[in-house]
Amino acid sequence: MPRCRTDCIEKPLSASFGKLGRCVGRNPWWFLVIPLFLSAGLGGGFYFLPQREGSDIEKYFTPNNGPAKTERDFVKKYFPTNDSRAFSSSRLYTEGTYAAFIAVVEERSILQTELFKAIIKLDKEIKTLKYDSFAYADLCAVTAGTCVSSQVLTAINYTASRIEETEFTYPVYNSQFVGSELGGVHLHENGTVRNATALRVFYYLKEDNEAYRLKSLQWLNIFIEEFPKIVQNMSAEELKISYFTSVSRQQEFDGNSKSVIPLFAVTYFLTIFFSIISCQRAVHTVKL
Fold it and tell me: Which of 102, 105, 107, 226 has the fewest other C-beta atoms within 10 Å?
């Protein structure tokens, strides 16, 4: 009875690796130097990694031809925005480019003169922030010839002493929507605001074209860097102030990815180490 051969693959591979081993043994320096030069040459591409690195949430975590993007293009075509002349937050087809802070006070109303003095001072310091030679006034979204500003602060003409005498109706005051700015609102029977515990102020920036968008993003980076310092120097200890920007989510995502990579390295090291130890114990057991 003829015997079945089972080394039809193993035998040629063994012969090939044998020839390779003899070649390496006769020419060791070639196999040492060439891989070093090849690795160094190819590794030079890591120099360009920061420019080519991609972490955009929308680009990499949403379908390329998804219905949401198609519908957004439809809205963009028929409801275009003009951040330099006639900005309207309700016409935005993206999240927009903006910074915002929320001031909260507990156990009493935020609509107090001394608290609004601190808020107005904070507002002024934010508007003095600059990226290069571009101040907020150069990059702000514009409507009716002026920067888009807080409806509440505009209503009192940025005068803190007028806040207590102004009777705000809610959520619309003088044909302007203030529901997105006042929080924790309690009303009188006639519909005017009795008290509110929070105030949110937005700072919308231009993104009409790529040049403005990049400058606005750089201004936001300055805002993120300087805002905690400004708040730390404020005298109103009753106010609890937090901030958010249109790039905060992206920055948190980038920070998470950088903090996770070292954990992957540790995981791979432990896995390989455990495998080596396990194999050594198995070999020792077989010998016994």
Answer: 107
Q: Do residues 129 and 203 lie in contact, with contact meaning Cβ atoms separated by under 8 Å?
A: no
pLDDT tens-place string over residues 21-57: 888 888 888 888 898 898 888 888 877 776 666 666 6
How far apart are the C-alpha atoms of 129 and 219, rounded to whole Å? 8
Confirm if 83 and 143 have CB atoms less than 8 A apart.
Answer: no
| Parallel/antiparallel/unpaired status of strands 240-245 and 186-187 | unpaired
Tokens of 100: 């915002």
* pTM, 2 dp: 0.73
The gap between the terminal CA atoms of the chain, to the nearest Å, is: 38
Position 93 scores a pLDDT of 83
Q: What is the per-residue pLDDT across 237-285, written as a single tens digit (0 to 9) for each?
A: 789 999 999 888 887 777 776 777 778 778 888 888 888 887 766 545 5
